[in-house]
Amino acid sequence: MIEIRALQEGDDRSQLRSGDPDLDRFFHKFAGQNQFKHHLGVTYVAIDGGRPLGFATVAPGHVEIEKLPAAARKKLPRYPLPVLRLARLAVDQEARGQGLGRQLLRFIFQLALRMADDYGCVGVVVDAKPDAVDFYRQYGFISVDVVEGQSDARPAPIPMFLAIRPIRAAFGAQDD
Ligand SMILES: CC(C)(COP(=O)(O)OP(=O)(O)OC[C@H]1O[C@@H](n2cnc3c(N)ncnc32)[C@H](O)[C@@H]1OP(=O)(O)O)[C@@H](O)C(=O)NCCC(=O)NCCS
User: Fold this and answer.
1) Ligand 1 nearest atom to the CA of residue 126, by list position
2) DSSP summary character for residue 68
3) How many angstroms separate the first and last alpha carbons of the chain?
4) Residue 79: per-residue pLDDT
5) Model pTM score
6) Residues near ligand 1 with C-beta < 6 Å?
7) What is the pLDDT of residue 145?
8) pLDDT tens, 33-90?
9) Which residues, in sequence order, are bridge partners of residue 84?
């Protein structure tokens, strides 16, 4: 039975292998201190029998309105807009394709709705790795910026945005 909850200090983070060395390094070395010591963000883990099989790290952020797609800009003021930033998302290679990424993202959407209701939040922003763009697109995220200098050797992340309205619509019954 998979449980999604905030990282705890006693969790063993050393076993997760996502296939991405940067994401693994972050999870093994920095997720704990960033959360418990510096309060830079919070990592949520998908736990199975005590073992973290995936994680998502979030922090509040803001976007400039010019960065948003035209449809999302309508009627919004021109000062920086509050968003929930999905800073990192990864699933252990052995646990891929079983819906964990989807479950973690769903959990993050619920956090965004809570943020919208409690503090304000116009949507979720993610800097998607090129290989993950289609993963996010299927949930409605759209690219919000032209990335320059991209190359196959060092692919640049692609900023993507999903507005709070469709998120609320997807969870409508339980959140309205
Ligand atoms: C992207 C990632 C988090 C997906 O996790 P996962 O647990 O394998 O995904 P799920 O099993 O929940 O997949 C949900 C759906 O997305 C699809 N999907 C998964 N990865 C995908 C990808 N990279 N591109 C397009 N679609 C993808 C699945 O086929 C599934 O579709 P379905 O509902 O039609 O069956 C995982 O592959 C990963 O950790 N990748 C490496 C790190 C990474 O790229 N993270 C994102 C950084 S921004």
Assistant:
1) 48
2) S
3) 28
4) 87
5) 0.92
6) 18-20, 23, 89-91, 96-102, 126, 128-129, 131-132, 134-135
7) 64
8) 999 999 999 999 999 999 999 999 999 999 988 888 787 787 888 889 999 999 999 9
9) 60, 124
